[in-house]
Amino acid sequence: MAIHSNSSLSLAFLLLNKIPGITSFGSLAPVKRALASGKVGHTGTLDKFADGLLVVLVGRALKLSSFFTNCNKRYEALVRFGAETDTLDMEGDVVAESPPPSKKALETAIRRFIGPIMQKPPAFSAIHLDGKRACELARSGFPVDMPPRPVTVYELTLQSYEPPLARIGVFCSSGTYVRALARDIAVVAGSRAHLAALTRTESGQFKLADALNLENWENPNPDDIRNALRPIDEAVFASLSIPVLYVDKKIAAAMRQGKPIDASILRGEEDHATHAGDLTAIFCDGSLTALIERKTPTLPDEQKSACWRYVFVV
User: Fold this and answer.
1) Residue 200 lies in a domain
2) Beta-carbon contacts of residue 251 (< 8 Å; ≥ 6 apart)
3) Helical residues (DSSP H) of 27-87, grouped into ranges
4) For residue 215, how many other CB atoms are within 10 A of its CB?
5) Which of 46, 67, 171, 205 has a CB 3.0–4.6 Å from the CB of 155, allowing a cystine?
6) Domain span at residue 273?
């Protein structure tokens, strides 16, 4: 459902098909112009050379960014074997070379990277080290040693292989670098590699097939962008696997005033919200009222109402 009311722009999102050659931040420029607002942000960076799905939040929806960013992602990667670059993509300088692997060696290597793994992010990345982005340090010539961190690769499929190019499907947790995955698979297979192309096809339950394609990025039709806006509604929270609870106008008004959360409305919610950090979206008359989070009680006999806190209030 598109949004047509300007007043509704304060809590909305859109799906955007980013084109290669533009940064994720730069991709927001036509959206900002169309909405005459700087309160626009994406929820998960795509490399400049990459294309595909960007989930873009507008207005107060930006406060919900972390819940969109932490979604699992799905990609289609084109890997070129034979040479590794410093940036791990086609724009970098070659730092190591080795012949492409056999198909059998590649298939064996791929299986090694399915499941929980420790991944060393690329030196050319937006991760902060000592207050500076790693990519800025790397471009300045400083040696960058990226500590490995845990990520999960749920699916990894070799879709085609015509040496030196392999097309690989990736379904992974947030924070996974497909460039680093290509690097590591190549090394295990006895080769070297970098990404020749990368497309994000899904972020959580949001799909590239539903995204807005801008034919003219320099001067797009503002109506196309405005008509692509969607409200932050019940379906959005379902896509984020966050339960929804409906309340009446009296309770909604009390919540908007920041009053203590009424424990009586949470009966039945305890079944799903059994751990600190579990969330519930509160709606009234089809509109988001608040997002609340279960917290750990500080006293054994603490009331249920004190076990919840406001994360976001409209």
Assistant:
1) no
2) 262, 265, 284
3) 29-35, 65-69
4) 7
5) 171
6) 242-313
Instruction: Report the alpha-carbon distance of residue 93 to residue 97 in Å, rounded.
Output: 11
pLDDT tens-digit series, residues 131-146: 556 555 446 565 666 7
HEC sequence for 83-116: EEECCCECCCCEEEECCCCCHHHHHHHHHCCCEE
**Tens of pLDDT, residues 178-202:** 999 999 999 999 999 999 999 999 9
Identity of residue 115: G
Q: Are 226 and 267 in a shared domain?
A: no
Q: Would you call 66 exposed, middle or buried from its count of C-beta atoms within 10 A (0-12, 13-18, 19+)?
A: exposed
Per-residue pLDDT tens for 271-285? Answer: 444 444 689 999 999
What span, in angstroms and rounded, lies between the C-alpha atoms of 145 and 301? 48
| CATH classification at residue 149 | 3.30.2350.10
In the chain, what is the straight-line distance between the N-terminal and C-terminal CA atoms, in Å? 20
- Which residues does residue 40 pair with via DSSP β-bridges, in sequence order? 58
- How many independent structural domains does the chain possess? 3
Is 218 within a domain? yes
**Pairing between strand 193-203 and 51-59?**
parallel
Rg of the chain's alpha carbons, rounded to an integer? Answer: 22
CA distance 192 to 186: 5
- How far is Cα 74 from Cα 261, in angstroms, rounded to an integer? 37
Say which of 47, 51, 89, 184 is annotated catalytic. Answer: 47
Residue 115's region, left for phi above 0, alpha for psi from -120 to 50, else beta, is left
Pairing assessment for the beta strands 230-231 and 11-18 based on DSSP bridges? antiparallel
User: How many C-beta atoms lie closer than 10 Å to residue 96's C-beta?
Assistant: 16
278 is catalytic: no
Task: Residue count of the chain, please give it.
Answer: 314
